Amino acid sequence: MMKRTLQRFHSSPLSKYLLAGMEQSGISAPPRLTYLPGRNSLLRFLRNFSSSDPGSEAYTKILPNPGGPVGIIKALRGEGKGGYLAFAVGPERGWTGGEVEEFRGGGWREVGMGGECIRAENAAEGETKIKMNLINTSSGAPLTLTGTLKRSWSPNGYDHFLNLISSSYYVNSPIFRVIPGFIAQFGLNPDPKETEKYKRSIQDDPKGAGPGNKKFTLTFATAGPNTRTTQIFINYNDNLFLDNQGFTPFGYLDSFAVEEIYNGYGEGAPRGKGPDQNAMRFKGEEYMKSFPKMTRIQSIEVVP
Q1: Where's it found, cell-wise (predicted)?
Q2: Which residues contact 245 (CB under 8 A, 6 or more apart)?
Q3: pTM for the complete prediction?
Q4: pLDDT digits (tens, 9 = 90+) for 169-215
Q5: For the chain, what are the domain ranges?
């Protein structure tokens, strides 16, 4: 049914990405799509938008653009108008200054994208490059790790991790459990309210689609079936015994430099001397600062 519904979009260069996005998000009714191949068609669209659609005043009109004055997530949270959303998706270079002015004149709100920007071909084909910026490493120097996320390995895990990145959930989060030869673990926010907000679990993915828990793969931590939330393992070894326990990798990091993450606290309490996860979950930064040497995540960003 979905493919028949999309027949009218097949003449557009965007149809491939629209169909893939709908399939990934479980949407069966396509959004209305207007393709604007040049400036003249853009101006016609802006002139006719209100008059051609009697309900256009109910639209929240968003203009994503690199370097926009406010983040897209913040902009959407601040609207609260209900009704419909209209997004003007521009070329990869962004909109020109003149085009932005035309949109502003029509009541469109310019927003920035930053790390929330995902190239359309990456979203459709299910492979996304990331960089993880770390501070407070073993050497004391900042460290940037690069990696690749693979949707074909773990569709639910891949989508969920990208959602957490776009929400800036991991900013300033510590890598609190580091066991050489096994794993490094992160995923508890310094603000307990944020940890609580994102505690909803996701469904498991079928095992066997990826390489398993090989060295430097990324996988959500799990406590049983369908319990994955925000915590991540970076595998420091080939931990293939995790494959049968619901740990489904969704990507990997590129470099041995991952082992620069501070490991002096070791296993967490009560089995070890490291941070207690329950205390971090409920007390947040108040408790985390008792372990000042923990490596922190400055940001995780999608690489355009």
Answers
A1: Nucleus
A2: 222
A3: 0.63
A4: 999 999 999 999 999 999 999 999 999 988 888 989 988 788 999 99
A5: 2-114, 126-302
Burial class (CB in 10 A: 0-12, 13-18, 19+), 182: middle
Name residues whose C-beta falls within 8 Å of residue 232's C-beta, 6 or more positions apart in sequence: 161, 185, 186, 187, 218, 219, 220, 221
Q: Side chain identity at 225, as an amino acid letter? A: P
- Cα 120 from Cα 295, distance rounded (Å): 32
Q: 2-114 falls under which CATH superfamily?
A: SPOUT methyltransferase, trefoil knot domain (3.40.1280.10)
Distance CA 104, CA 111 (A): 11
Residue 153, SS3 per DSSP: coil
- As a whole number of angstroms, the distance between CA 226 and CA 152 comes to 18
User: Any idea which residue has 């993450």 for tokens?
Assistant: 261
CATH architecture of residue range(s) 126-302: Beta Barrel (2.40)
Residue pLDDT, tens place only, 242-278? 998 989 999 999 877 888 999 999 998 888 899 999 9
Q: Which residue has the tokens 């310094």?
A: 190
**DSSP conformational letter for 128:** E
Contact (Cβ atoms closer than 8 angstroms) between residue 160 and residue 169: no
